[in-house]
């Protein structure tokens, strides 16, 4: 007897859950979490509102799932990012971060702008994953400072400042504009490098001669 090609219940359930995620992602990014209802999401998916509760008990669960998925994908992508071995660590991070986030504007918007919409317990869970990513950059900065390659006053503050600056790009970047993605990467990389450049030191072999008589 031929096997049925119809999806099995578990497979259908996984497919529906993924449709719910994608619909919620679009709606949250377009209208904001607070303005979107479970009914709105169900309409987008093409199911009755009650069907959503088989996959996500509340809208809050959907938001947490989207944010944790974003962070998991981000960390996994960093672990497999391919750059030449001689690439300076800060260049590796800046270029990776910009490339990854420019391809995921909706995910980035939700991951940063809707943190305020998480309840306290879910915020703590998501924040722990965000700190894991921040640690990647903080370690780069601390190791670079120890070797004299970079100068930083506070690794935690510098880390958050750099990430905030880089993460803001998707909010204004539009393809087809005056700058290519590669040019944006280079401009931002130069700004980051200048912000952590070692402080100049006095050169005893070249004393100031400003008061020397002609």
TrEMBL record:
This is Transcriptional regulator. The keyword Transcription regulation applies. It comes from the Bacteria. Keywords: DNA-binding, Transcription, Transcription regulation. Residues 195-214 are annotated as: Disordered. Residues 37-56 bind DNA. Residues 14-74 form the HTH tetR-type domain. PANTHER family: HTH-TYPE TRANSCRIPTIONAL REGULATOR ACRR (PTHR30055:SF240), HTH-TYPE TRANSCRIPTIONAL REGULATOR RUTR (PTHR30055). One of its GO terms (molecular function) is DNA-binding transcription factor activity. The keyword Transcription regulation applies. InterPro entries: DNA-bd_HTH_TetR-type_CS, Homeodomain-like_sf, HTH-type_TetR-like_transc_reg, HTH_TetR, KstR2_TetR_C, Tet_transcr_reg_TetR-rel_C_sf.
């Amino acid at each position: 007897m031929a096997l049925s090609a119809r999806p099995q219940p578990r497979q259908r359930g996984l497919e529906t859950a993924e449709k719910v995620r994608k619909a919620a992602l679009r709606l949250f990014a377009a209208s904001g979490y607070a303005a979107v209802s479970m009914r709105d999401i169900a309409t987008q998916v093409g199911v009755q509102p009650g069907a959503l509760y088989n996959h996500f008990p509340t809208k809050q669960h959907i938001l947490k799932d989207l944010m944790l998925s974003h962070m998991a994908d981000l960390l996994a992508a960093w672990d497999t990012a391919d750059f030449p071995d001689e690439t300076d660590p800060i260049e590796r991070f800046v270029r990776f971060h910009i490339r990854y986030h420019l391809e995921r504007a909706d995910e980035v918007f939700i991951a940063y702008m809707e943190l305020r919409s998480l309840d306290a317990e879910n915020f703590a869970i998501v924040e722990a994953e965000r700190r894991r990513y921040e640690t990647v950059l903080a370690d780069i900065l601390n190791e670079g400072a120890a070797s004299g390659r970079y100068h930083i006053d506070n690794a935690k503050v510098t880390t958050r400042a750099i990430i905030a600056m880089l993460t803001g790009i998707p909010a204004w970047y539009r393809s087809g504009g005056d700058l290519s993605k590669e040019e944006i990467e280079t401009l931002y990389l130069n700004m980051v490098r200048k912000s952590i450049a070692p402080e100049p030191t006095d050169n005893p072999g070249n004393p100031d001669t400003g008061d020397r008589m002609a």
